[in-house]
Amino acid sequence: MDLGIMDDKNWKKEEVKHRTKQCIKLWEKMQEGMTHTRSPVTYVELKKEKVGRRKDVVEAAQEERNVNTFTVIQSHENHHAIIDQHGEILGYWYRIKPELLKTLRETTAALPPAKVNAGNRGDYPTRHYSVWRDYKAIPYASAEYRRELPASKEWCDKNKKLFDYLSEGLRMISPMTYIRYRGAAPYLKARHNLEPLCGVWFGVAINQVVTGSTGTHLDFGDSGYNCVVPWG
User: Fold this and answer.
1) Is 90 exceeded by the pLDDT of residue 150?
2) What 3-state class would DSSP assign to 124?
3) How far is Cα of residue 45 from the mean position of the Cα atoms in its chain?
4) DSSP structural state of residue 135
5) Most-buried pick from 68, 148, 162, 206 (CB within 10 A)?
6) Which of 186, 187, 169 is nearest to 178 (CA)?
7) What is the spatial distance between Cα 79 and Cα 63, in angstroms, rounded to a whole number?
8) CA-CA-CA-CA dihedral for 196, 198, 201, 205, to nearest 10
9) Mean of the pLDDT values across residues 72-96?
10) How close are the terminal C-alpha atoms of the chain, in Å?
11) DSSP state letter for 212
């Protein structure tokens, strides 16, 4: 019996290794023809400037309204990475499967009406489905997620393939970030019976009907890579 259990564990390990190798090969194929943009600002400098300088950064962004001065990366089929002089990835772009975006559009349109956020993010409906610990010692599910149950859970469940796809992308782009995010999942489950709601990410902000200019916003407290998915 013990030998059978060990064999089963070894088989699962081999299966994981095989799947990982397949993912790496597929990712390498997808990266053929990949292009880069070199950032004049390093990752270390960005990390330093986010501490205690939030107001300065936001004010500078508000003053610079001429979009012609911004670097524009045209949409194309190939992967694209923004890197600093040390090769550190600051941003990464790749296409999302159309069928995943179709599900995202349909499920988001079916969500309960959300109030318009007139704050610094802009004037459009927004909601957060997340597990977090802002200002509290114990992690908890966001009020919007709990208030909109069961619709909120259905939305997360129906978009699971999208979040899995994006999570595998993060795993290829930044393995250490992926491992760090995954590392909290067992603790959340064992201690608080909570799970990340969006693949390897703990939550999502859903912004709907963004038809005009949005407000200037800085996610200074975030740690690691965020994922932005435009659709519509």
Assistant:
1) yes
2) strand
3) 22
4) T
5) 162
6) 169
7) 31
8) -110
9) 91
10) 55
11) S
